[in-house]
């Protein structure tokens, strides 16, 4: 599950997961880079519907910008969400 947290209020602004009905039927494999890209696209669509046009990305120390992490972030950017 990928979440966007609204920092001042510590609430979830939006989220997306491969386990959701909206994605489950369109994913062949739920844990690959293609699935991560679709999760990022769905998350971006939901953010834009809530008029959230920019987000800040914070990776955990052990996370690197490649593979599934890169796919989610690139999908957000490609869908029109600005990264701060």
UniProtKB/TrEMBL annotation:
Ribonucleoprotein recorded as keyword: yes
GO CC terms of this entry: mitochondrion; ribonucleoprotein complex; ribosome
Subcellular location: Mitochondrion
Domain of life: Eukaryota
InterPro entries the UniProt entry points to: Ribosomal_L18, Ribosomal_uL18_bac/plant/anim, Ribosomal_uS11_sf
Entry-linked Pfam families: Ribosomal_L18p
Protein name: 50S ribosomal protein L18
């Amino acid at each position: 599950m990928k979440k966007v947290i609204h920092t001042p209020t510590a609430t979830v602004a939006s989220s997306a997961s491969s386990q959701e009905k909206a994605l489950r039927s369109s994913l062949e494999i739920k844990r690959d880079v293609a699935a991560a890209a679709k999760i990022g696209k769905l998350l971006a669509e939901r953010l834009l519907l809530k008029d959230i046009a920019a987000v800040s990305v914070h990776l955990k120390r052990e996370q690197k910008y490649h593979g599934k992490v890169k796919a989610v972030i690139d999908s957000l950017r490609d869908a029109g969400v600005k990264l701060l």
